TrEMBL record:
Keyword 4Fe-4S: no
Protein origin, superkingdom: Bacteria
Subunit relationships: Homotetramer.
This protein's name: Tryptophanase
Gene Ontology terms for molecular function: tryptophanase activity
Cofactor list: pyridoxal 5'-phosphate
Domain Aromatic amino acid beta-eliminating lyase/threonine aldolase: 46-421
Record keywords, A-Z: Lyase, Pyridoxal phosphate
Length: 455
């Protein structure tokens, strides 16, 4: 097979400021060994997140000029509404400024204190928005979904037996079921159509609606085409239509598969929560025909949603992560298998097997990638999920991962080749990599602002 080329050419470029290793040593010291505290200009390859960081197309930039900035009833709203209705098959469309706003507005309308929402894995903001309302957020991904080295075509699937047990025991507490495609928290892993169909069927038996978190629905659909028997020849739009036919509503962060830098929405099949949603929206986001966005943002999203479903683009998109995975295999670096849609999660223990967890190996690996090659990823390990208790002791996470998440249409194959070289060099010099200790930390979400020193 030939090289999978990027199915676009570059019309507008943004220079990367080159830095030397010596400079990066200094910059990381100034950032207190925390890459979140770096200036983006001091990063060569920024794989912190795929959210809102991608490149828009020339069609999107030209659509921006067509934005109608009317407060109420803007043309851009109707244009986007038509696109969202076509993709989701749902009648009601409510724009929001990003995904977490869609969650907050919907949950405030649809949940009450003491309730419980099952999901494969709740994303951080989804969990936080539910817990803030006193609702329990239950993660029920299949067992394979929590084992990094175990390969499975649909590691994002929800465990139907556990869902059934929850519904049997506590149906009265469940306002609706959720499922996240792809499962970001579990490594960007897809959910099969068979799983969504069966989950929706179970919920229906108990009269419960299904809400899908569709941030990465296009990537999930492409995985279905590539892996689910019977869908090899299906069109992506038909797979998406079937996926959403099982849902009663969805929340979307268009900063992912919507291919925009800002934007989101809620779509709903019927109007059961609509009055409350619109009231919440007006209080929290804006009038229902703009929802916290400018008219030009709505236009860019209308175009981006269609471009995100292009099969050539999706094939290339999934190939980039897989390609990096092959290079990591060759270098003997472990990662969450198979590679996900939007990211590769390095298993730091395979690079730093001797480093004690108290020295935060995944954080140390993140620092090493920055020093060696100016690459920025996100630690998903004991800094993010561990806690310092009041007695000064510490809890640790069960995995030490470093997420490299890829902005859409932004980095070329040579950037990926370079990153693979840097990772292999870091692995070769693993004996020199230093662990860290925390010198200062806030009480919550410590990874964003904590300060560190070398041990
Ligand atoms: N749901 C999922 C599955 C997500 O991955 C995100 C964001 C959200 C909801 C919230 O959307 O950022 O537009 O408010 N994930 C980003 C990430 C931040 O880096 O994985 P948002």
């Amino acid at each position: 097979p030939r090289t999978q080329i990027e199915p676009f050419r570059i019309k507008s470029v943004e220079p990367i400021r080159m830095t030397s290793r010596a400079e990066r040593v200094q910059l990381l010291e100034e950032a207190k060994l925390n890459v979140f505290q770096l200036r983006a200009d001091d990063v060569l390859i920024d794989w912190l997140t795929d959210s809102g960081t991608g490149a828009m197309s020339s069609r999107q930039w030209s659509a921006i000029m067509l934005g109608d900035e009317s407060y109420a009833g803007a043309r851009s709203f109707y244009r986007l509404q038509t696109v969202v209705r076509t993709i989701t098959g749902m009648e009601h469309f409510v724009p929001t400024h990003q995904g977490r706003a869609a969650e907050k507005v919907l949950f405030t309308a649809a949940c009450k204190k003491g309730e419980l929402v099952p999901n494969n894995c709740h994303f951080d903001t989804t969990r936080a928005n539910l817990e803030y309302l006193g609702v329990e957020a239950l993660d029920l991904v299949i067992a394979e979904g929590l084992q990094p080295s175990v390969a499975h075509p649909f590691k994002g699937n929800i465990d139907l037996a556990r869902v059934e047990a929850v519904l049997k025991a506590e149906a009265q507490r469940v306002p609706f079921g959720m499922i996240t495609v792809t499962n970001n928290t579990g490594g960007g892993q897809p959910v099969s159509l068979a799983n969504i169909r069966a989950y929706a069927g179970l919920l229906k038996q108990y009269g419960k609606p299904l809400i899908i978190d569709i941030c990465r629905f296009a990537e999930n659909a492409m995985f279905i085409k590539m892996r689910e028997p019977g869908y090899e020849h299906a069109r992506i739009t038909d797979i998406v239509a079937e996926m959403l036919s099982y849902a009663d509503g969805c929340t979307m962060s268009a900063k992912k598969d919507g291919m925009v830098n800002i934007g989101g929405f809620i779509a709903l099949r019927d109007d059961r929560w609509l009055d409350d949603i619109r009231n919440n929206l007006i209080m929290m986001e804006g009038f229902p025909t703009y929802g916290g966005l400018a008219g030009r943002d709505l236009e860019a999203m209308a175009v981006g949603l269609e471009e995100g479903l292009d099969e050539d683009y999706l094939r290339y998109r999934l190939r980039t992560a897989e390609y990096l995975g092959e290079k990591l295999d060759a270098a003997g670096v472990g990662f969450v298998r198979p590679t996900g849609g939007h990211a590769v999660y390095l298993d730091a223990r395979t690079v730093l097997p001797h480093m004690p967890v108290e020295h935060y190996p995944a954080w140390a690996l993140g620092n090493a990638l920055y020093l060696e090659g100016g690459i920025r990823g996100v630690e998903v390990g004991s800094v993010m999920f561990g806690k310092r208790l009041d007695d000064g002791t510490e809890t640790f996470h069960k995995m030490e991962l470093l997420r490299l998440a890829f902005p859409r249409r932004m980095y070329t194959q040579s950037h990926f080749d370079y990153a693979a070289e840097v990772i292999a060099e870091v692995k070769a010099k693993a004996a020199d990599i230093r662990g860290v200790r925390i010198t200062r930390q806030p009480k919550f979400l410590r990874h964003f602002t904590a300060e560190f020193a070398w041990v």
